Amino acid sequence: MIIDNLINDCKQGDTKAFEQIYRLLSPKIFAVCLKYSRSYEEAQDNLQEGFLLLFEKINQFKFQGSFEGWAKRVVINYILQQYRNQGVFEIITENVIEDEVVEVEEENISLEFLTKIIQELPDRYRLVFNLYVMDGYSHKEIAEMLEINIGTSKSNLARAKGILKSKIEASELTSIPKIK
């Protein structure tokens, strides 16, 4: 398989092989960076730093599971570490609130709008939302990754959904044609 050969070449220090891996995976890894970053520019920085880290850690890949999945985890963990270093996840006592149900008429909401409002969420809410909803991690896994308790993970998810729901509802209200 071509990717396996490229990985082996990278493990031997071949930067041209890593450049090929970058070209193959950067669109998918950038999509991950966009989900976890505050802005497009921050996502670009995270992509570059994430790939530098991948190159440093490539010897740790043991050909168990997909390389793409491993690469995404490395980059997600890098981004989460940046937030931990910034103190985003300092312990705050939060009550778990009821899970918010968000009903969306898909034809009225663009992907660009959804990306924008997700990026606007406070860091702690955006990261939990993405880990849980977009990437399928459990609250237990999120709590371990972010070094928070499970209740905080659930609360942050519910708050993120609540904020998103109100922004979607507000956008739907403003897009209703006005009667003159």
From TrEMBL:
Top-level taxon of origin: Bacteria
Residue span(s) of domain RNA polymerase sigma factor 70 region 4 type: 115-161
Transcription regulation found in the keyword field: yes
Domain RNA polymerase sigma-70 region: residue ranges: 22-87
Pfam family, any one: Sigma70_r4_2
InterPro entries: RNA_pol_sigma-70-like (IPR039425), RNA_pol_sigma-70_dom (IPR014284), RNA_pol_sigma70_r2 (IPR007627), RNA_pol_sigma70_r4_t2 (IPR013249), RNA_pol_sigma_r2 (IPR013325), RNA_pol_sigma_r3/r4-like (IPR013324), WH-like_DNA-bd_sf (IPR036388)
Family: Belongs to the sigma-70 factor family. ECF subfamily.
Protein's name according to its UniProt entry: Sigma-70 family RNA polymerase sigma factor
UniProt KW keywords: Sigma factor, Transcription, Transcription regulation
SUPFAM superfamilies reported in the protein's UniProt record: Sigma2 domain of RNA polymerase sigma factors, Sigma3 and sigma4 domains of RNA polymerase sigma factors
